[in-house]
Amino acid sequence: MNGPERRKYNPDNKTGYEYVLLADHLAGLIEQGKWPAGSRIPGERALSEEYGVALDTVRKATKILRERGLVQTLKSKGTFVTPRD
Predict the structure, then answer these.
(1) Where does the HTH gntR-type domain start and stop, copy by copy (predicted)?
(2) Whose CA is closest to 25, among 54, 55, 67, 58?
(3) Where are the domains of the chain?
(4) DSSP character for 40?
(5) Whole-prediction pTM value?
(6) How far lies 1's CA from each of 5, 13, 29, in Å?
(7) Interior CA angle at 14 toward 71 and 20, to 5°?
(8) Which of 9, 20, 53, 84 is the most exposed place for a label (fewest CB within 10 A)?
């Protein structure tokens, strides 16, 4: 396989919908502080390329993060990690 190596978001090969597994992985990055509160997360296209998944998978994962209250998306600005209480 040629091209850049894709980041793994499911190293334990858990079963489930790809967008949920990706959302869980991204939530872990937030909880570990790798994406601190107020920081802008990479764009959907960048995440799609980084993880080797379809753009729609990233969009669904981002929606789950919004529903969990972990991020907020501002139109034409990007998606940002919400501050924790």
Answers:
(1) 16-84
(2) 58
(3) 18-81
(4) B
(5) 0.85
(6) 9, 20, 27
(7) 25
(8) 84
